[in-house]
Automatic annotation (TrEMBL), chain A:
Reaction(s) catalysed by this chain's protein: L-threonylcarbamoyladenylate + adenosine(37) in tRNA = N(6)-L-threonylcarbamoyladenosine(37) in tRNA + AMP + H(+)
Gene, per the UniProt record: tsaD
InterPro entries tied to this protein: ATPase_NBD (IPR043129), Gcp-like_dom (IPR000905), KAE1/TsaD (IPR017861), Peptidase_M22_CS (IPR017860), TsaD (IPR022450)
Enzyme Commission number: 2.3.1.234
Binding positions (Fe cation): 113, 117, 311
PANTHER family: TRNA N6-ADENOSINE THREONYLCARBAMOYLTRANSFERASE (PTHR11735), TRNA N6-ADENOSINE THREONYLCARBAMOYLTRANSFERASE, MITOCHONDRIAL (PTHR11735:SF6)
Identification of the protein by name: tRNA N6-adenosine threonylcarbamoyltransferase
Domain Gcp-like intervals: 25-318
Keywords: Acyltransferase, Cytoplasm, Iron, Metal-binding, Transferase, tRNA processing
From TrEMBL, chain B:
InterPro entries: P-loop_NTPase, T6A_TsaE
NCBIfam families, alphabetized: T6A_YjeE (TIGR00150)
Protein name: tRNA threonylcarbamoyladenosine biosynthesis protein TsaE
Compartments where located: Cytoplasm
GO cellular component, one term: cytoplasm
Presence of the UniProt keyword Magnesium in the record: yes
Amino acid sequence: MTPPLILGLESSCDDSAAALLRGTQILSSVVRGQNALHAQFGGVVPEIAARAHAETLDVCVEAALAEAGVTLEAVDAIAVTAGPGLIGGVLSGVMLAKGLATGLGVPLVGVNHLAGHALTPRLTEDLPFPYLMLLVSGGHCQFLIVRGPQDFARLGGTIDDAPGEAFDKTARLLGLSQPGGPSVEDAARDGDPDRFRFPRPLLDRPGCDLSFSGLKTALLRQRDALISEQGGLKRQDRADLCAGFQAAVRDVLVEKTARAIDLYLADAPAAPALAIAGGVAANGVLRGALTGLCTARGLRFCAPPLKLCTDNAAMIAYAGGALLEAGLHHDMTLSARPRWPLDAGAAPLIGSGKKGAKA
Amino acid sequence: MQHRLTLPSADATARLAATLGAGLAPGDVLLLSGGIGAGKTHFARSLIHSLQEVPEDVPSPTFTLVQVYDTTAGPLWHADLYRLDSPDEVVELGLEEAFEEAICLVEWPDRLGPLAPARTLHLEFADGPEEDARDLTLSWDAPRWDSLRDLAS
């Protein structure tokens, strides 16, 4: 039997996206965002206007249909990000999805944006549940045990900045280009990671929570100390600062991932695996360290291609398909949710049994 | 009116945030300025936690622009306007309504332009004499905040 053709819609943050998916085959995935503007000074210019999302989404759907070579009438179901995110953007996606589902007379399913990211490894690889997930997306960074399409246990996450944000802010503080991930990694290549000893926040505390905000402050202090000593920052100083910063992020991520692995292995998974999503996977140093950790602990290491780790609608279509398969769908009462934790059980969840995403 | 304080540590900042938070109600707007690493988000996080029975994650809003929380004092918006270009975008975010209906903590408030409400409390963070110390300048026009003159660090 042919799997259903699912149209996915995503508009929860900066980008508008539409995709067509059949099973695990991505027929098209269109993302219209602000990428061209990312290189502007200091960061990403967001598309926050609900109106603009609504207009762009229509165009994305048309482009996705054309690229896939199918007509709207061929679509079997609509999956849409219903949260978390900026309410205006999410709302325009949900409204469009409702309109399309009603007009076509097909099922509608609302998807948690973070669930989309967390299930992406299964879209590109044959990865059985449960797997350990290090989910790094925009402002998010968390460790999850993914036990099923609606069953996530959160082990910990950042208590302040996400790593990508720490890289962006480091780049900003050192006059490097945005986004900070690639530019800091580049600069660090010629640097000595041991010249400056940056803090490893929260390593002294138990658990899997991460913190990167203090690291940024330490870097700022070191930069200012160098500038007042020498009257400026030399290229080598910048390289050493970047290398020291990156080494600190690496050490924190590796140690916290090791702790998350301990908790995950208590689930006795038949085929233990760690999947990472987001910019972390694109950084050679971080990826190398996490791959090494997995090898040492006997875990398979998975990292979906980067274009599926940034915001896209293929992951929403895939997650929506998994929900539909589980018999879930929504009606016209589906609402946009600015906040929607994957695991509402939150902190003391270890040993408290399974917790599903709250509908 | 203006009042200056030195906060000797991150904990002192957290205590001050809780003290201030205890007097807040919907309609109160706090503008937080200072450079990267000045402690704006730490202050906001401490204030939000002090108003929650079960403290939840308070991630940096730099990427998401706005995070909304339920607190014992009512709805609270934590916004970071760094990525915005113009006051028009503030309107799109729905901040104008939030200024009326919620407690608002706004980082990088210079982006507000003329949309900054009149009765705000402005907190300016700057590096202090020691590593974790911060100099904080509170300033306001509205009598709503006059009692802060007696605030000690």
